[in-house]
Amino acid sequence: MGVLILSFLIILLSVVTAFSSPPSPEKISSTKHSQITSNIQRSQIILRALYLEHRHQYVESRNIWKTLPQTNKSVKDHIFQADLMDQKPGVLESIPETVSSILIAVSYYNWQKKWDKGYQLLKKHPDIVAKSEELKLIEVRLALYLRKYEEAELLLLGMAPQDLLDKTKLRLLRTWYFVLSGKKKGFRIAIKELEEDSLYLPASLMMIAHWGESWSDTKKRALKALTRFPSNRKLIEEIIIIFQNHGAWNELGDLLDLKTFNRDEAGAWVLTANVYFQTGQAKKLRQLLNTVRKTERHRLDYLDYAARIAVRRKEWDLLKHVTDQYHKYFPYLRDGDLFLAEYKRETASRKK
């Protein structure tokens, strides 16, 4: 019986050990190992060729690209680019029929101001142009350069880019088309669209403000944008920043009175408090602080404004409360000690 129990325990131990022991690593076959090594070597070759291109060493990079399979489209593109940059004779007579190579060739023609050749090249490869929004935009621009306005109009009507940058480029080209072709009505419509879609965007307002436009013009543009897009929260936020940067506290106060500005939003009171403080409306600031949520009354913003109001209105009990809050929530700051010293000095002088 003891022998049976011992045998059972040995079998159980072997089973548990088999399950708990880690599986042996899978052996890589020699064929797979050779393929991995080949891929690594090819990657190193490509990186070397790209590095030489970046250094404008096109002859050396071309020699490396030619060691790679010529059936790869990307390899063809790089060889063509190297030949073109090296001014190899006849290189433009055999352009690879890929988007990248056509784009490089057209860009080269543009650089040489050979707009007609670039335009004809795009017309020769309509299927390739149809695959690239960038090539379509270049085709429109070249048509305008060459005063082919009817062709430009057809191209513009057939375009519907999805990318935001391409949409902006298309809108600019359409405006340019109306200007060059003398279609005043279309030009006015295009300008209006451009104005509404671009000129009054939050980012546009910020850029214009930083470009040194006069404050009066910036303010007019900001207010005009606000009348057009009164519910655009981001636009309002950017205009608030612009007004703050210019110290336009009265105008900012008018802006905060808009129904579109949510005063009940957490932290929104800070902006209103700053307006009241900058415009000397101490009474309104005190009333505002009384309405701030209790969950926000330990914030530095609240304590700072409360301390200012306490000193300005000589509300020393409020200053004592601010001091206690600083010591409780921000013991590492010296503000609490400074306010406490101010409180003791004032209350001591009152007792005397």
Overview of the molecule:
The chain has 352 residues and is mainly alpha-helical. The protein is built from 20 helices and no strands. It is elongated. The relative contact order is 0.03. The model is unreliable at 11-21 (pLDDT under 50).
The stretches of 5 or more residues where confidence is low (pLDDT under 50) are 11-21
The number of helices is 20
Terminus-to-terminus distance: 103 Å
Content of β-strand? under 5%
Q: Characterize the largest beta sheet: strand count, sense, and whether it forms a barrel.
A: none
Residues in helix, %: over 70%
Beta strands, count:
0
**CATH top level assignment of the domain at 262-352:** Mainly Alpha
CATH topology of the domain at 262-352, anyone? Serine Threonine Protein Phosphatase 5, Tetratricopeptide repeat
CATH architecture of the domain at 262-352: Alpha Horseshoe
Radius of gyration from CA coordinates: 36 Å
Overall outline: elongated
